Amino acid sequence: MKKRYALAAIPVLLTTFSSLASSEAAWQQLDKDVQKSCLAISALQEKKIEGKRTDFSDEVGYSAVVISGNYKFKNSQPVPGKELCLYNRKTKKASLEQMQ
């Protein structure tokens, strides 16, 4: 009898653990959200995301991307630049700093 209960619990446990893992669609949505938020606040022209997103642990709660492009100033040639964007996964807000 105990064996039947144990066997009956296996599908429930598997369902519970699989629901804790993020789906591929969720990771793709996060990537879109990070890119959209970061590109929106960047002052660079002809900007693009360089490389892949880096995710810090849930304890830290941030994802990071590098944006490259050009700064354009009045009466001067475009100047290449890079910015590091941190995206807070909890608040869904991005902030960035110019990279040297």
Compact description:
With 100 residues, the chain is of the alpha+beta class. The chain has helices spanning 2-20, 24-41, and strands at 45-55, 62-71, 79-88, 93-99.
Based on CA atoms alone, the radius of gyration comes out at 21 Å
Number of extended strands = 4
SSE sequence, one letter per element: HHEEEE
What class, by secondary structure content?
A: alpha+beta
Strand content: 35-45%
Largest sheet, spatial ordering of strands: 1-2-3-4
- The percent range for helix content is 25-40%
Query: Roughly what is the average pLDDT, rounded to an integer?
Result: 86
Number of helical segments with 4 or more residues: 2
Largest sheet: 4 strands, antiparallel
Please indicate the count of domains.
1
Shape: elongated
The low-confidence runs, each spanning 5 or more residues with pLDDT under 50, are 12-19
Distance between the termini: 68 Å
Give your account of this protein's structure.
The chain is built from two helices and four strands; from the N terminus they run ααββββ. By secondary structure, it is an alpha+beta fold. The protein has one domain. Strands 1-2-3-4 form a four-stranded antiparallel sheet. It is elongated and about 50 Å long. The relative contact order is 0.16.
Mind sketching the topology for me?
Layout: H1 2-20, H2 24-41, E1 45-55, E2 62-71, E3 79-88, E4 93-99
Can you tag this structure with a few keywords?
single chain, 100 residues, alpha+beta, four-stranded antiparallel sheet, elongated
